[in-house]
Write a structure and sequence with these properties.
By secondary structure, this protein is of the alpha+beta class. It has a domain at about 25-65. The chain is about 20% helix and about 15% strand. GO terms for molecular function: 3'-5' DNA helicase activity; DNA binding; four-way junction helicase activity. Its EC number is 5.6.2.4.
Length: about 70
């Protein structure tokens, strides 16, 4: 249903994204600190795979991460 557009929001773990190529994802939201910058880049790389569109990536981290 997500692939056909009937469902427009998908919450998933990294495992759900393995091998998936969905070209028209506009937003990628990461909640919590990823283990490495490579993991963050991989997660954000899910947005805007269709090069004709823009994508927005958002990282939500707890306040304690900035102390």
């Amino acid at each position: 249903q997500f692939m056909t557009g009937k469902i427009r929001i998908l919450c998933a773990t990294d495992a759900a994204g393995m091998g998936c190529n969905v070209p028209d994802i506009r937003y990628s939201v990461v909640i919590g600190l990823p283990e490495t910058l490579s993991v963050l880049a991989q997660r954000w790389g899910r947005a805007a795979r269709n090069r004709t569109m823009d994508g927005t990536c958002l990282l939500l981290v707890p306040e304690w991460a900035f102390r």
